[in-house]
Amino acid sequence: MGLYSAVVSTVNERVFRWKGSVLVYPPVLLVGLIVRFTLSEKVIDNIRTNIFPEDNTFNIIFANHSFQIFTILWLMIFFMHVLKDFTRSKFQSLLPTAIQHTHDTVPFKSKSIRAWQLILCFFLKYSLTLASIVGILTLRHYIQETYGMNISGHYISIVTLSITIIWETRSSISDADILELENSDGLDKRTLLIYAFLSGVLLLCASILAIWLLVLFVTAVFYHTAVEKLIGLIWGYVTPLLIFHGLSYLNIDP
């Protein structure tokens, strides 16, 4: 119990609460390029052909099906937000935090209005994110057909989806909402199940983010030119920046 609690708290702090977590992708690209230019072309081709072919199972599951994985995680994050908001009276702040969260929801709003606000916001972010990626990938295909530049689709989609998950998870749950399991003996079973779900979603999201990070590293080493990957990386940051800051500016983000 104590070990699990420590792992959850560490993951929450290092992956979701730390603002620099979304800046890990440029260093991954840089390290991958260093490895690529360090190894000979013969070694690169041999490893790519025998270990990391383009149709390997790992790539097919976690890269080619990244939209489906994102959809599942997005729904889980949504339910995590719902549980946090609408069962808040059952919560206890068991982790010591420098800033105490008051947990005061939007006053003078009924739960039904709050629920529709959450549904609208999550639907908008989900739709805009996927639509933007599809649009950028369509433009990428046009550029490839017209100019012969094969911009990395992995960097476009995975970086966009990863940053979106990190930011949404960060805004959906706080340090005070993470259960410290070794002090949970006095809580009822229903509350324990809620906290177990919250921590499980955090660990699952962190695991997928780590796998996607590995996919990006493999791409950086074995596929595309440096310019093609750099452009994909930049485009991967554009979509979440525009969506999250745009909705916040329009006061739509709950």
Automatic annotation (TrEMBL):
InterPro entries according to UniProt: FIT
Primary residence: endoplasmic reticulum
Keyword Flavoprotein in record: no
Pfam family membership, one: FIT
Entry's Gene Ontology molecular function annotations: coenzyme A diphosphatase activity
Transmembrane segments: 20-39, 60-83, 115-139, 151-167, 192-223, 230-252
Membrane topology term: Multi-pass membrane protein
Subcellular location: Endoplasmic reticulum membrane
GO cellular component, one term: endoplasmic reticulum membrane
Source organism, top-level taxon: Eukaryota
PANTHER family: ACYL-COENZYME A DIPHOSPHATASE FITM2
Name recorded for this polypeptide: Uncharacterized protein
Source taxonomy: Eukaryota, Fungi, Dikarya, Ascomycota, Saccharomycotina
